[in-house]
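ok so i was messing around last nite and threw this chain in just to see what happens. nothing serious, just curious
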Amino acid sequence: MNEEKQEEKLAFEEKILKAKELLEKLNSQDITLQNSIEVYKSGVKELEEAQKLLDEAKQIFTTKEKDNN
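result:
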């Protein structure tokens, strides 16, 4: 695996882990409404960025598949 793909994989995994951490915070009994809104927005942002990385990877694979045919 080349270095760029390895970095993308790590970035994706980091975003998913961060989203999981934020979800755990949302499940906390001690979280305030204002804080939960901020945590929710951060979680959505992390997931959107992870989805963007997946979409980019899909585009690369699709392009390479077309080139091989």
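not much to say yet. The CA atoms of residues 25 and 31 lie 7 Å apart.
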